[in-house]
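Hi support team,

I've been running sequence recovery on a batch of backbones for a student project. Most finish fine, but this one hangs at about 90% for roughly twenty minutes before it completes. I'm not sure whether the input is malformed or the queue is just slow. I've pasted the structure tokens below so you can try to reproduce it. Let me know if you need the job ID as well.

Thanks,
M.K.
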């Protein structure tokens, strides 16, 4: 780990992020347009398909009254949520994409009145819409991160093509790797915790707590992978390894920066979601969220640029071990 005095500066990164956004206000249009579309656009729902699926779920005859009551509560919550949840939310394209305030919102109405709904009933149509929305969201996220890398990079802008095949391929691989990790690690771990929790109920809470800690600890070192794909023109594997090494060498400051970014985003999002679904104050929320989220994102670019430079300087100033072990002549 780098000495504390050689660690990247957290508040300097946030200050630089604010200055970058103030000079490139067009960056804020990405989250603003996405949230405006999610608020006023068509809602693509799967209410009927979810209801059919729930009706075909049969609890075993040995189910206890507690389990039956829990299932009834869960069933009602699912039906109520998916009644207004829209598949257009996949335009958010997690884990990397355009920030959005409304991507998990299940709007019943908007300031203009009632929504227009498109109801899907076939699983094939649902899958196609999810894939299509995710790809569109990935493409817009690609453009946003590429513009942010150009706006924050200390290197002069080059005349390279705006849509680069190598970086685009690496960008698309990010959600693929994330989904693979979820199916290979997270879901099996959750199933194991649920099975053990059925025998030892107290283990459920403890198991999920340690699973959350483990996932955060495991994924945090790779959080700057999307940034490095654009800033240093790396492949997905190179970006993963570089992000891991950078965070490990600047662990104290990197963890603090990530925590502060998430905390600010979470607290401000609570503020932006205070207006009701049909209130025109949501326009203020959309603009405020767009501004804050892009400032945090720009600050993360400045932070990783600073961290990478400090890691390079520290590495170059180290005396090789072979030199120390070489006998004097």
């Amino acid at each position: 780990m780098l000495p504390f005095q050689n660690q990247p500066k957290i508040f300097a990164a946030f200050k630089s992020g604010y200055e970058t956004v103030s000079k490139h206000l067009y960056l804020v249009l990405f989250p603003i347009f996405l949230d405006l579309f999610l608020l006023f656009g068509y809602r693509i729902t799967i209410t009927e398909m979810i209801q059919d699926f729930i009706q075909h779920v049969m609890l075993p005859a040995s189910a206890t009254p507690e389990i039956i009551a829990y299932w009834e509560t869960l069933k009602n919550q699912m039906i109520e949520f998916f009644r207004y949840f829209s598949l257009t939310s996949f335009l958010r394209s997690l884990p990397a994409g355009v920030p959005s305030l409304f991507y998990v919102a299940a709007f019943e109405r908007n300031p203009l009145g009632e929504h227009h709904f498109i109801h899907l009933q076939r699983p094939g149509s649902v899958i196609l819409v999810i894939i299509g929305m995710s790809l569109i969201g990935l493409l817009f996220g690609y453009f946003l991160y590429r513009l942010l890398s150009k706006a924050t990079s200390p290197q002069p802008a080059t005349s390279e093509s705006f849509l680069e095949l190598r970086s685009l391929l690496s960008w698309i691989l990010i959600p693929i790797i994330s989904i693979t990790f979820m199916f290979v690690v997270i879901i099996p771990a959750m199933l194991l915790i649920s099975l053990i929790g059925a025998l030892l109920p107290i283990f459920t809470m403890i198991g999920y707590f340690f699973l959350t800690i483990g996932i955060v600890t495991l994924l945090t070192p790779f959080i700057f992978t999307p940034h490095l794909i654009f800033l240093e023109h790396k492949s997905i594997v190179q970006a993963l390894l570089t992000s891991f090494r950078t965070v490990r060498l600047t662990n104290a400051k990197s963890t603090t920066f990530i925590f502060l970014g998430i905390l600010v985003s979470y607290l401000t999002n609570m503020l932006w979601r205070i207006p009701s679904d049909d209130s025109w104050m949501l326009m203020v929320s959309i603009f405020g969220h767009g501004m804050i989220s892009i400032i945090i994102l720009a600050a993360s670019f400045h932070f990783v640029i600073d961290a990478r430079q400090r890691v390079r300087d520290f590495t170059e100033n180290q005396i090789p071990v072979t030199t120390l072990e070489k006998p004097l002549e």
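--
Follow-up from support: It reproduced on our side and the slowdown came from queue contention, not your input. The CA atoms of residues 269 and 289 lie 7 Å apart. No action needed from you.
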